[in-house]
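Retry 2 of 3 after timeout on previous attempt. Resubmitting structure tokens to design endpoint.
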């Protein structure tokens, strides 16, 4: 079952990467990144680590929306990662919109987002997140020390929004680095 889940998640990520790269205008607006995070300590006996690769790009309706409303601060994020503790691990796939709230001359920005996610395993060291489908909300601070490099901090909350009987939610702190094409 785990092999099938990994294969499906990999196919989904490759599919979306290929769609993003179909047009030259999309390819010029892509950011690739990696991030790593740990959960905060509000949950006893829970020591989770997260490692993700992700992609930011303009949403498919970006050029239409720009023509109607002017330049937008919306991007689309897809992420593939691993969540693990000392005994278990899980693959994580998520995708959804990101809204840039503050952008100071492309040097400093603040963004937020809410997106659905899928995990192949939701039980870690006797801690049950509740189920395979969760929602991720975040706020991120990003600085750009160089034209093609962004560094950031991200606070993230994972919860299943009451879809399952158990809904403890978990908070994470991330550091991330993005490469802008």
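Retry 2 succeeded. Sequence:
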């Amino acid at each position: 079952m785990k092999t099938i889940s990994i294969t499906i998640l990999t196919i989904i990520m490759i599919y979306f990467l290929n769609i993003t790269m179909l047009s030259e205008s999309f390819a010029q607006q892509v950011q690739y990144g990696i991030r790593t995070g740990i959960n905060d300590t509000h949950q006893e006996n829970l020591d989770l680590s997260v490692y993700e690769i992700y992609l930011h790009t303009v949403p498919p309706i970006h050029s239409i929306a720009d023509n109607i409303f002017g330049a937008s601060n919306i991007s689309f994020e897809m992420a593939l990662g691993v969540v693990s503790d000392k005994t278990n691990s899980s693959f994580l796939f998520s995708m959804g919109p990101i809204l840039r709230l503050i952008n100071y001359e492309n040097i400093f920005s603040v963004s937020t987002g809410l997106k659905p996610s899928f995990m192949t395993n939701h039980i870690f060291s006797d801690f049950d997140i509740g189920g395979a489908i969760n929602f991720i909300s975040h706020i991120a601070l990003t600085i750009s020390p160089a034209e093609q490099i962004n560094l950031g901090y991200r606070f993230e909350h994972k919860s299943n929004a009451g879809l399952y009987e158990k809904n403890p939610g978990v908070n994470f702190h991330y550091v991330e680095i993005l490469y802008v094409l």
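Attempt log closed. The chain has one domain: 2-180.
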